[in-house]
Amino acid sequence: MSSAKDADPSLGYLTRKDTEVKLPRPTRVKNKTPAPIQITAEQILREARERQEAEIRPPKQKITDSTELADYRLRKRKEFEDLIRRVRWNISVWIKYAQWEESQKDFNRARSVWERALEVDYRNHTLWLKYAEVEMKNKFINHARNVWDRAVTLLPRVDQLWYKYIHMEEMLGNVAGARQIFERWMSWMPDQQGWLSYIKFELRYNEIERARGIFERFVQCHPKVSAWIRYAKFEMKNGEVARARNVYERAVEKLADDEEAEQLFVAFAEFEERCKETQRARCIYKFALDHIPKGRAEDLYRKFVSFEKQYGDKEGIEDAIVGKRRFQYEDEVRKNPLNYDSWFDYIRLEESVGSKERIREVYERAIANVPPAEEKRYWQRYIYLWINYALYEELDAEDMERTRDVYRECMNLIPHKKFSFAKIWLLAAQFEIRQLNLTGARQILGNAIGKAPKDKAYIDFEISEGEYDRTRHLYERLLDRTKHLKVWISYAEFEASAMEEVVEGADSLEEQKRKCIQNARRVFEKAINYFRTSAPELKEERAMLLEEWLNMESSFGYLGDVGLVQPKLPKKLKKRRPITSEDGLAGMEEFTDYVFPEETQAPNLKILEAAYRWKKQKISTED
């Protein structure tokens, strides 16, 4: 049986070959070089416009008699009215309607359309402008006045309406009427430009006193730096130097703390400079630099430096340069108040040129920036601010009470429960010693033992004073608070070194040395006993303590006895233990373990005890 694909085409069947669609082959561009004549987009658009057919417009209709005119008007009004009914809120339709009525010279109908449009949206100031312009264009002045008066009454905050109204009256020569409109406008307290327009209006008619009165009202309505500067320049332009200076002085009195006060001071100083009053200008600059925050006085510093270079002497120039550097430091500490290096630079600058009050002010501002975290690494640089402050008060200012207060405030600020600084305790104590106040020094160092036991400044002080009994008492107090390995070693070294300070007396020198060695051994014995009974887990510390003891016995020469220590030394064993890392991987690590003599004897004692119990049990069984 034959299939469809083998069918004969003459019989009406299609083969697969007949149904295949042959796609055209893509043409290949053989020549890719640019054409000799380039066609631009502009040329293509121009040719397209030239080939467009002309726009079909309706033929122009010529009106030959009044009947045709009436029909035309009726038809157009009907079109406008129908359009308004559909899009009542479309103001442009109303405007076109009214302007068409105007073109037909039917002004009453035009006014009717304008009034209907205002009933729809009287807040649209464009309607009022177009309405009034139509009345003005056709010289209906009173109608225009009526429109402007209604407009400014309903929309008093639209400046353009006031400007147009005033301009119309001024063009008509009605200066009094324009002034009256300005007064109505000023009662609404417009922006600065409105007041300045009023002033310019009066100046056009050379009404200087009126303009001055308006300026007075202007600076009361807008007490801004720019308003006062304009007022002063107005007086200066009219040659009233005393009045201009008075304006600047009043402005400084009112706006010395304003954010834009820098501009006011610069303008005031430049005014005095133009008047050849250089000393007045210098005083203004210095007053401004003392009162304006440093972050807002960049232009002021630049102007002051330029002024001093032009008019000042060497001292004045240096002062101006210092002021500029002061501004730079102020900018740095404002951006990063925790950058203590910037504070140090700022303080050095003030200490070289500044007064005591300014130096103290910078110090107080610097120490007010307490580190945000109670970690010693953040405080290490900060503490030196306090130290420098205290040294300045003691050495430069020579104010001992303030020095004492600085040390006291610093020690109260430090979080001693987490960390402390031995240097600050020691400096405070040394200051009291310089004041011959040994009781105060001992009190400070006693507080150091209580609040910061790891800092042993008090012990060093008593050793330097030769107070050995007091030193032993301090070591015992310290050991009540901490049993740290270093404290034991330091205590033993102190007892051993005390023999270097003895003098020949009733006892021989050798006997006194033996006594010092016995005291050191007693400390080591006490320490070993503590680590063996109270802290058996601290094997490494115990081993280190024995090593120190052994080294000390060796250093004693013929008076030493290493045989006291060697039986106590532990054996070192290398062991391995399993560990687990943070990512969960298991492994083994090698560590050093210490086995002390009593630990090796313990298994033997257990065997003897077991043998004794076995023997006792055997005897009782035989009986």
From TrEMBL:
Subcellular localization: Nucleus
Domain Pre-mRNA-splicing factor Syf1/CRNKL1-like C-terminal HAT-repeats as annotated: residue spans: 241-324
UniProt main location, coarse: nucleus
Keyword hit for Magnesium: no
One record GO biological process: spliceosomal complex assembly
Swiss-Prot/TrEMBL keywords: mRNA processing, mRNA splicing, Nucleus, Repeat, Spliceosome
Pre-mRNA-splicing factor Syf1-like N-terminal HAT-repeats domain boundaries: 79-224, 327-450
GO cellular component terms listed in the entry, alphabetical order: post-mRNA release spliceosomal complex; precatalytic spliceosome; Prp19 complex; U2-type catalytic step 2 spliceosome
Family: Belongs to the crooked-neck family.
Function: Involved in pre-mRNA splicing and cell cycle progression. Required for the spliceosome assembly and initiation of the DNA replication.
Protein name as it appears in the record: Crooked neck-like protein 1
Organism listed in the record: Hevea brasiliensis
